Amino acid sequence: MAPREHGGDRGKDRDDRDSEFLDKLVHINRVAKVVKGGKRFGFAALVVVGDQKGRVGFGHGKAREVPEAVRKATESAKRGLVRVPLREGRTLHHDVDGRWGAGKVVLRSAPPGTGIIAGGPMRAVFESLGMQDVVAKSKGSSNPYNMVRATFDALKKQASPRAVAARRGKKVSDILSRRRDQDATAE
């Protein structure tokens, strides 16, 4: 029987693809189910995964053991990656609000050198995304699930000048020159 040409390193490709992602465990919740004879404990994990180049996703996994819950959450996060346009690869194009349930967040673009000014779950999202400068504030629920979902709601509203120009049928320079004019009049 002849050796197969292409099947030999399938596992290696999968490991290379997985290694490009940075995953951050945001929250673990221990849940108890009361049964005859005691309690059965389970674990729920919230994980954020990103490639630090503009793609990020989050996932939720539940299992009887923590490592299994984290693995399920990581797989779920990789299935739901979203691409976020970043200005100069480091910050947002414009300020934006996000909301999910009682979780409300405000994200603002920041000048170079500011760093990530954000708390807990939002910081994990920005670090996985590869964002370097951002100012964020959570104004609602401190529940990590709602904060992460509200952050994703805000990031999905983010639009690059290229996308806005394409939608309006204009040139990118027209969009950016109008923005500069508004900034000059605001000062």
**pLDDT averaged residue by residue:** 85
- What is the annotated CATH architecture of the largest domain? 2-Layer Sandwich
Count the E strands.
8
Shape: elongated
Task: Label the structural class.
Answer: alpha+beta
Sheet having the most strands: 4 strands, antiparallel
* Name of the CATH class of the largest domain: Alpha Beta
Strand order of the largest sheet: 1-2-3-4
CATH fold node name of the largest domain: Ribosomal Protein S5, domain 2
**Radius of gyration over C-alpha positions, nearest whole angstrom:** 21 Å
How much helix is in the residues? 25-40%
Q: How many separate helices?
A: 6
What is the count of structural domains? 2
Distance between the termini: 77 Å
**Proportion of residues in extended strands:** 25-35%
In short:
It comes from Taklimakanibacter albus. With 187 residues, the chain is of the alpha+beta class. The chain has 6 helices and 8 strands.
Walk me through this protein's architecture.
The protein is of the alpha+beta class. Helix content is 37%, strand content 30%. The strands form two sheets. Strands 1-2-3-4 form a four-stranded antiparallel β-sheet. Helix 5 (161-168) packs across helix 6 (172-186). The radius of gyration is 21 Å and the shape is elongated. The N and C termini lie far apart (77 Å).
